[in-house]
């Protein structure tokens, strides 16, 4: 008998790999900032205009009895004091304009929940005990300290095993009232009932078929079954369920309530209206909260699953939390469905980005998560500053002193490999990420054109290709530029000696132990693995050139500092998001390069009061062309005057001689 296990809250799968760290960081920031602003404004408005609907005691004019009704219902009479008929000239409105709570927000309620494979409820008394999963008395609305937790198990109904829905039947009423709508003394003014699915039909992610490329293909291999053209929808079940009352909704414009929230609002069952015929009442909102139900923690239901656990948390929830969770959950589920059916989503992706953010919240320490939110905003700012400084540095640079051209070419190659890898895994890659990768490649190509001329020349006799791409110096190299070129060759020579064997070893290991979709996928995956593992080595030639030239004046100091500060922020992300220890260790590799660079800046100090030997200011800015021309013009005028004074051409004696 297969049995699913109850998953502790927050327990998700380990996230592998580092390629999505930055992507998740940016998605997280943008969503957080936009959501915080939107819901912050809503929360402030709601708080400023909030009216308390706690119970007040009044006298029923018809019976003379004291009754407890909601207060501050903005002109809508309490349900128990409603007029028996509409006012003269009033028109009954099928869809009410405003709705008010039918019971005070601090009421006590009884709640019963049963499970069934049928949408139609059976009498509560006839429900087997194992399907009577929740029976709580005197639950206090608006009291956040009143929390109930129930754990149980139940046998999976046969219909649910075969793709049927597991329905939850919810019976809620005031203490002492009959909760069963099948009974004759059931009173809709004191109790209400609704049905809600406890299983979810979600599209399964397509899993790419992989194989070990070294294994021989069997001769009698059976033909592969044709895959269905559309998405595969599966029936998912999560063992943790949260039922949250939202007692402080207050008086609402029914039409203005968002569809994501309105699906949980249940109007008074008889369709009664106030004297104007415009306004109605609603029962306390019970939010069947699936927000924290992650897909990777769910069980796919089939005939092998015969018993399931169920943990129920009963609590109260603030309106702003209800609004946030219901909106995000409904929208993300709809986005996942649209993506599964081939629709293009704004920003790309497959609708699972919200789940990644949920995992970050569930798996991280709240304090560390708060710090990460702050520094991740700083990460975006530094990324933008580094981009601008890097462009400005290469745009103003007039020579290639201290520049490792091979490193730039290697960066073009590595970013191209990453782009091909993202294309190979395009199902899980946003088109925005692909676009930013292309922009990065174009910028690296542009950097090459700033230091060398890229030319297409006829190939040498006997070559396989008629033309070849060559890199030619823009002008005759100075002695320092020649040294830079020489040191660049030396640095890459030793990197080849150390890096190529590692790349070959990694390729052999991956070919022998891993499975791949194809030989092309294997090559790209191996190359991108090497890029992620050894990409930081591309900074070593620049450090070696600094060491041999005994100078760092040619380095883009601002851009370097921005980039290295971002490495520390990446370290913080690495310790916020769950991942293997070795991968966390790998995120520290760039820090080693950073500390070496800091040492070089200390060892090869720059005199910021003068222009350096490479024609650049100490603040990593080239001399402004216009200012240089003005200075040269002034100097020329002074030289002419000095020459004239020396020759005496501007004196009276010279004029007399003439």
**Largest sheet: number of strands, sense, barrel closure:** 5 strands, mixed
Helix content: 40-55%
> In what range is the share of β-strand residues?
15-25%
Q: Give the termini distance in whole angstroms.
A: 122 Å
How many E-type strands?
A: 19
Unreliable sequence segments: 1-29, 607-625, 649-658
Radius of gyration: 36 Å
Number of domains: 3
Number of helices, where a helix is a run of at least 4 consecutive DSSP H or I residues: 16
**Helix and strand composition category:** alpha+beta
Mean pLDDT across all residues, rounded? 75
The best one-word shape is elongated
Question: What does this entry look like structurally?
Answer:
There is one protein chain. The chain is α+β, with helices and mostly antiparallel strands and 658 residues long. It has three domains: 2-58 and 68-80 and 105-197 and 233-342, no CATH class; 370-449 and 480-603, no CATH class; 625-657. It contains 16 helices and 19 strands. The strands form six sheets. Strands 1, 7, 12, 15 and 17 form a five-stranded mixed beta sheet that branches. Helix 6 runs antiparallel to helix 12 (557-576) and helix 7 (405-424) crosses helix 10 (519-534). Mean pLDDT is 75; it is low at 1-29, 607-625 and 649-658.
Detail the topology: elements first, then pairings.
Blueprint: E1 2-3, H1 21-49, E2 55-59, E3 66-70, E4 98-101, E5 108-116, E6 132-140, E7 148-155, H2 158-161, E8 167-173, E9 191-197, E10 199-203, E11 233-237, E12 240-246, E13 252-253, H3 259-262, E14 280-282, E15 285-289, E16 299-300, E17 305-316, H4 319-340, H5 353-363, H6 366-396, H7 405-424, H8 431-451, E18 452-458, E19 467-473, H9 479-513, H10 519-534, H11 540-549, H12 557-576, H13 581-586, H14 589-603, H15 625-647, H16 652-657
Parallel strand pairs: 1-17, 4-14, 12-17
Antiparallel strand pairs: 2-3, 4-13, 5-6, 5-8, 7-17, 8-9, 10-11, 11-16, 12-15, 18-19
Region (Disordered): 639-658
Subcellular location: Membrane
Organism: Fusarium longipes
């Amino acid at each position: 008998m297969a049995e699913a296990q109850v998953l502790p809250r927050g327990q998700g799968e380990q996230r592998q790999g580092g390629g999505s760290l930055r992507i998740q960081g940016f998605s997280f920031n943008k969503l957080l900032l936009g959501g915080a602003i939107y819901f912050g404004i809503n929360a402030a408005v709601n708080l400023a205009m909030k009216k308390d609907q706690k119970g007040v005691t009044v006298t029923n004019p018809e019976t003379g009895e004291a009754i407890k009704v909601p207060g501050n219902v903005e002109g809508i009479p309490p349900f128990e004091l409603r007029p028996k008929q509409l006012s003269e000239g009033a028109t009954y409105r099928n869809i009410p304009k405003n709705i008010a709570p039918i019971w005070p927000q601090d009421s006590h309620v009884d709640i019963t929940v049963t499970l069934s494979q049928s949408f139609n409820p059976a009498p509560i008394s006839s429900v087997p005990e194992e399907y009577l999963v929740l029976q709580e008395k005197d639950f206090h609305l608006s009291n956040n300290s009143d929390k109930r937790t129930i754990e149980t198990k139940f046998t999976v109904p046969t219909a649910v095993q075969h793709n049927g829905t597991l329905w939850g039947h919810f019976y809620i009423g005031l203490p002492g009232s009959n909760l069963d709508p099948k009974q004759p003394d059931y009173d809709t003014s004191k109790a209400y009932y609704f049905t809600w699915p406890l299983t979810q039909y979600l599209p399964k992610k397509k899993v790419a078929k992989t194989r070990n490329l070294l294994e021989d293909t069997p001769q009698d291999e059976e033909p592969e079954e044709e895959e269905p053209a559309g998405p595969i929808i599966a029936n998912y079940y999560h063992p943790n369920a949260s039922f949250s009352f939202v007692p402080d909704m207050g008086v609402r414009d029914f039409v203005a309530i968002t569809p994501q929230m309105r699906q949980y609002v249940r109007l008074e069952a008889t369709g009664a209206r106030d004297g104007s015929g415009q306004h109605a009442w609603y029962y306390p909102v019970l939010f069947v909260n699936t927000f924290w139900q992650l897909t990777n923690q769910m069980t796919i239901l089939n005939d092998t699953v015969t018993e399931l656990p169920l943990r129920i948390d009963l609590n109260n929830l603030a309106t702003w939390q209800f609004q946030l969770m219901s909106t995000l959950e409904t929208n993300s589920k709809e986005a996942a469905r649209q993506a599964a059916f081939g629709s293009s989503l704004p920003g790309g992706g497959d609708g699972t980005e919200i789940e990644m953010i949920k995992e970050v919240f569930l798996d991280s320490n709240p304090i560390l998560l708060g710090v990460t939110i702050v520094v991740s905003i700083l990460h975006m700012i530094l990324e933008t500053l580094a981009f601008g400084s890097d462009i400005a540095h290469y745009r103003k640079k007039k020579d290639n002193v201290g520049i490792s051209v091979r490193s730039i070419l290697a960066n073009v190659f590595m970013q191209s490999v990453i782009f091909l890898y993202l294309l190979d895994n395009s199902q899980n890659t946003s088109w925005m990420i692909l676009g930013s990768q292309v922009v990065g490649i174009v910028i690296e190509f542009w950097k090459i054109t700033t230091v060398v001329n890229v030319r297409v020349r006829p190939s040498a006799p006997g070559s396989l290709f008629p033309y070849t791409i060559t890199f030619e110096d823009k002008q005759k190299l100075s002695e320092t530029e020649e040294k830079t070129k020489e040191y660049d060759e030396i640095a890459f020579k030793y990197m080849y000696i150390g890096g190529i064997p590692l790349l070959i070893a990694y390729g052999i290991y991956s070919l022998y132990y891993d499975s791949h979709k194809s030989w092309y996928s294997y090559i790209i995956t191996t190359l991108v693995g090497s890029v992620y593992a050894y990409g930081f080595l591309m900074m070593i030639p620049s450090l070696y050139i600094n060491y041999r030239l005994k100078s760092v004046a040619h380095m883009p100091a601002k851009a370097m500092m921005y980039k290295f500060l971002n490495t520390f922020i990446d370290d913080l992300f690495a310790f916020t998001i769950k991942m293997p220890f070795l991968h966390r260790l790998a995120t520290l590799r760039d820090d080693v390069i950073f500390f070496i660079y800091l040492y070089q800046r200390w060892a090869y100090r720059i005199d910021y009061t003068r222009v350096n030997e490479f024609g650049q200011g100490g603040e990593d800015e080239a001399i402004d062309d216009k200012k240089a021309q003005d200075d040269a013009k002034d100097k020329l005028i002074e030289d002419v005057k000095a020459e004239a004074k020396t020759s005496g051409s501007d004196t009276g004696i010279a004029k007399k001689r003439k």
